[in-house]
Amino acid sequence: MAELRDDDKPLRKIALSFKELAAAADSQTADVEVAPFSHACSLVSPLFGCLGIAFKFAEMDYVAKVRDLADASKSKMTLQALLDHEMEMNCVRKAGSHSRNLLRVKRGLDMVRVLFEQILVSEGNSLRDPASKAYSQVFAPHHGWAIRKAVAAGMYALPTKAQLLKKLNEDENSAKTRMQDYVVASEPVIRYINRLFLSRELGIDW
Q1: Which of 128, 31, 38 is nearest to 74 (CA)?
Q2: Of the candidates 192, 189, 107, which has an alpha carbon nearest to the alpha carbon of residue 141?
Q3: What phi and psi, each to the nearest 5 degrees, are found at residue 203?
Q4: Residues 117 and 183: beta-carbon distance below 8 Å
Q5: What are the tens digits of pLDDT across the range 28-57?
Q6: SS3 category, 131
Q7: Beta bridge partners of 78
Q8: What whole-number distance in Å separates Cα of residue 135 and Cα of residue 143?
Q9: CA 85 to chain CA centroid, nearest Å
Q10: Statement: residue 3 has pLDDT above 50
Q11: In sequence order, what are the beta bridge partners of 33?
């Protein structure tokens, strides 16, 4: 991964973008636009890269699906409109559908949320326990044995907390603030997406 410039603060950009999304998700109209959503999600992508081989599969999958949603924003204004259109076309669960990709991106956001929560309460310099808990809670139920085994092996190659913060151009205090900001702001966004699927009786565990 390329070295970050001194003025490049990924965690700060992520926190600010998700605060804006949270405001839209929590508003009375509660209609999140696809373009700012996909942009905010793209800012999360480097985090997967910083975690090394254990989350390489997640990085590749997440980046591709965020790019698909960015393309979808050219024709569909809101996440609600995107989902409703594919329901009309009867292709919500079709491989490669925007709806399926939205669900996968949501899981990526949720994984980062749980990872940050675990980092905030963990002692020491190891990321293995926070990353293992985040993977087990969010991704593992949807993965087969082979992927779970590969991820478990990759956990031994995770960077330390100090190495991660250096890659993200943050010190421990600033990182804690930004991580907490993301945890708080991402919850209503994730809840909003779940509600979009559940209110249409589409489920979220596929």
Answers
A1: 38
A2: 107
A3: 75, 165
A4: yes
A5: 777 899 999 999 999 999 999 999 888 888
A6: helix
A7: 33
A8: 10
A9: 24
A10: no
A11: 78
The secondary element (H helix, E strand) that includes residue 17 is helix 10-26
Say what the pLDDT of residue 53 is.
Answer: 87
Query: What's at 101, amino acid-wise?
Result: N
Q: pTM of the predicted model, to two decimals?
A: 0.93
| Alpha helix ranges (H) inside 28-171 | 34-50, 56-72, 79-88, 98-121, 128-134, 145-154, 161-167
Residue 6: predicted pLDDT: 45
- SS3 at position 193: helix
Closest CA to 191 of 59, 34, 32, 63: 32
The CB density around residue 77, as the number of other CB atoms within 10 Å, is 13
**Which whole number is the average pLDDT over 17-34?**
90
Structure-block tokens of residue 206: 């596929």
Residue keyed to tokens 């809101």? 78
